[in-house]
Amino acid sequence: MKRRDFLTGAAVTGVAAASATFATPAIAQGKQEWRMVTTWPKNFPGMGVGANRLAQRITEMSDGRLTVRVYSAGELVPALQTFDAVIEGSAEMSHGSAYYWHGKSRAASFFSGVPFGMTSNEFSAWIRYLGGQEIWDEVYDQFGVKAFLCGQTGTQAGGWFRRELSSVNDIKGMKFRTPGLGGQVWERLGATVVNLAGGEIFQALQSGALDAAEFVGPYNDLALGFHQVAKNYYFPSFIEPGLAFELTVSKSKFTALPKDLQTIVEIACQAEYEQMTADFYSHDPQALRTLVEKHGVKIHQFPEDIIEAGAKASADLLRELREGGDALTKKTADSYATSLALVRERTQNVDMAYLAAREKFFNGLS
To answer: Structure pTM?
Structure first.
């Protein structure tokens, strides 16, 4: 997929219409049409396609009783205003990631990706079985919305850098696009951090407004064309070890739905969570080969002192949120930390031990 195919009309957020231009959802003979606004460019690999697929699942599973129409970033609202659109009633659903809304609640970032935090499987365990969803509901209740997990990237790439990194000193003064708690960690390492929607990053890199940027990983980054302006690609991300996506819905409108339609929305989100994860795991390595073999991208791991400094900054930040945050942020951070201490036991004792054995003794079947 070419970058221009899904960026057309999406990067210019000024095209967002005023509230008077929003169509009224259709309600006839027990059928409803809901609007889903997304933070992603049109037809964007992984997330944008996943939003379309989720809308189709809900529409088909409900036999058209709840039809979902998708609006990509900039079609109805700017990419980073989709959450507000649901709060204000301009849309019934939004598709994005919770750390974009940390300005509304510092607790929100815990429901997307936490520096040196949970992997995708660990995060899912927290949300579904260790009280995460209940706390998420409490955080979003104050805005009149409810969220469901609807996708995962797994551990992301660390980012694109114009210059090769030799030590943590190279971070100082760097203009770096990265959001959420991770952005705050990079700030503590000396970077000047900005948050831009996906469709705006390439132009900022190209113009020199950014020295570095991270977004997701090879599957998305190839499509966005970052390799055209930066050749140093770092792995892995230590600020987004398991980045989750959310479907946010108006709570009042959701609870007004018949119970079977509520269940359809929830089950469709669960199905999409699994499918999007598989999408990334299958397409990331293919895209990485293309970046290296066809575009001359250089793959690096972060210098150890950057990882060490990032770990210390992450621990300090999370400790501050637990000790000095508002009551709901503290409650969220406490639950997250307690759950991480539990689920990482399985990861370390089982998953990591197996992966170490496979790496050492098994070369594959080819």
So the answer is: 0.89
